[in-house]
Amino acid sequence: MVPVNRDGNDNRFFLNDNPVFINGTCEYEHAIGKSHSFSNTEIKSRVEQVKAAGYNAFREGFINPII
């Protein structure tokens, strides 16, 4: 593994030696009034919405309400 060396204040994220702009969002998976995670159909629909909005990164969160 070769260490990454950059001159100055270049704090960009590089992938395969090319700078990549991370445009992401985070959401808490919870259907209001249902108190459970999304169905597979709801997940697929949400992913398509996120992609259509132009995001290239997505963080999903879910906490089981029954602990």
Describe the structure.
It is a single chain. The chain has 67 residues and is an alpha+beta fold. The protein is 19% helix and 24% strand. It contains 1 helix and 4 strands. The protein has one helix spanning 40-52; strands at 13-15, 18-20, 24-28, 57-61. The strands form 2 sheets. It has a two-stranded antiparallel sheet with strand order 1-2. The chain has a two-stranded parallel sheet with strand order 3-4. It is elongated.
Summarize the structure.
InterPro entries: GH. By secondary structure, the protein is α+β, with helices and mostly antiparallel strands.
Question: Main traits of this protein?
Answer:
67 residues, alpha+beta, two-stranded antiparallel ribbon, two-stranded parallel sheet, 1 helix, 4 strands, GH
Give the topology, please.
Elements: E1 13-15, E2 18-20, E3 24-28, H1 40-52, E4 57-61
Parallel strand pairs: 3-4
Antiparallel strand pairs: 1-2
